[in-house]
What we know:
Oligomer: single chain
Strand order of the largest sheet: 1-5-6-7-3-2-4-8-9-10
Shape: globular
Amino acid sequence: MMVDIEENIKKLIKDKANEMNADALYCCNSVSLIIKQLNNYIDGRISLSEERISYLLDHLVGYYTITLDIPLDYDLKILRAVKFDNIEKKPCFSKVSRLSYIPQNSEIIPPIGRLNKHGKSMFYGCVYINDNSYNVAFSEVDALKNERINILKSEATAEIKVNYIGIYGYIKRESKPYFISKGVYSYFKSICEYEEQIFDKHVFVAFQLCDAFFFDILRRKKSDRLYSVTSILASHFLEGDRVDGLIYTSVKAEGSPVIAIKPESVDSKVSHKKTISFEIQENYGYAMYKANPLYQGVVNGEIINWS
């Protein structure tokens, strides 16, 4: 099966090479110009309409990106953190929907996020590797000293397919992400080597520039203009039903994987298991915390039973 997929991808790369190699320098300059426009917008130097941003990103994703799906393990474990802001109540949300993605009929309107547009829900979490992953979850919600944080612990019940944004940067540095299997990494490396072999050098640079830009903007500190770009970028990657979500690197915890999953995929492929309520005792910086567990809960449908 994987061999067939690799052959199809290589055919796509060969078709792109036949189309682009004759105008290789133009391709490289075109990608560079688009990236400069988008960076200028993010930095507040120029104005761009949402339609223009979408058009530019569609050009980068459609022409200069080879998207490779990663099937994640059935027993993938995910942590999602949510702040509990009401200091007068027991710091425990009673319903799972308050800890999962924001439901469509909720009174809460989803704000624009790194990978979701305003009004559109997305399930954000971090991949559980070991107990240090709790620190990653805390950092993703900018947890501060004395704040109470609820953690939702979930597991995949079916294969979840994701795109990994920025994977080629790891291959270029010969640095395999620790949570990706050797087989998957070798597959990506083989595709990258084939691109370098068959593309004109300027076309290959264009593809590398595009991947580096996507990786970069998903690692930058949040801002309204940045999120305007990244949320539209995600909508291009997640169009259709081919993949369930995206994996990228945590902004706060270097090298740690975080994941964004479509709500419909959460409903059909993820089971929520347990919850923990923490009080942050110290925020040392660099995604390192001292946290005291206050309560533990078990998920029973939509209700959380705390003890």
